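hi! just following up on the protien thing from before. the input was this:
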Amino acid sequence: MRRILLVPLLAAWAALASLTAAGAEPVFPPGMRIGLEPPGDLRLSTRAPGFEDADRKVSITILDLPLNAYEEIERSAFAKNQTGLIDLKRESFPFASGIGFLITGQVRANGVTLNRWFLLATAFGANAQGVAMLINVEVPEAALAVYSDAVIRKALASVTIRVAPVQERLGMMPFKLNELAGFRVMQVMAEGGVILTDGPTEDLNRQPYMIVSVGRGAPAEPDDRGKFARELLSSAPLRDLSVTLAEPMRIGGVPGYEIRAQAQAQGMAGEPLSVVQWVRFGGGGFLRIVGVGRKADWDTLFTRFRAVRDGVDLK
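and the predicted 3d structure came back as:
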């Protein structure tokens, strides 16, 4: 079945792309790479990434998938048994940034018939490397006069990929960076982290950098925090890591832990590196800040690292 559905459809896709370019502009949920032209009275949702028409109970939910999860979801989508879906159909579906699989059907719940469309796809193009998606559309039977199958298909055909603006992505983080101390934002990670660097390249083996991230599962007991912080630091991609200082401290008025260390990185021609890690605990989670730079530049770098640390506010 999948081989049949994978017929290229390149001519249809090319025609679609030219029509989309001449039409309305796609709308992107804040911080997301994936957007589309929302039909009818659909507006950006405040509850989930995507769009909703609250009065008609219509929703479009956009999931930006990790590539390693895509294959498993695809297998599930093509499984013989699709619990609850009536009149199930699967087909190849070209859209503005690629070709995917469209799965349609209905479900009945509490006496209401819901029409559903699922677009499962990877994308291609300059902005689409590493992009996989699952877009779920749900329309009650009573709303089909406004959101017909043709209307929904036109909206899904307009799906477009962009490079999400850094400031938008930073706004989605669970913390705010009030002070960059001369560093620039190199990467905003979907997992809730930001990489900062100081230098002209993206090669972290050749210039100082910081990583600010959050996590769950921090120890509740103060006596366990030192071991927890050491284990976090041991996962750093550095050679010959050796701790020179490790002690509890207050960070932003809450319990924290500081570790300083020495290390080496192959990309810096074997030059000695200095490392600092601050872990701030609270609410069953933690804020982790790591700074890495050449030992020869450490006095200046440490002052800048600390300025960034002191400017981080949890939202």
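The helical segments are 2-5, 10-22, 67-77, 149-157, 166-171, 225-234, 298-310.
Residues 88 and 201 are 50 Å apart (CA to CA).
cheers
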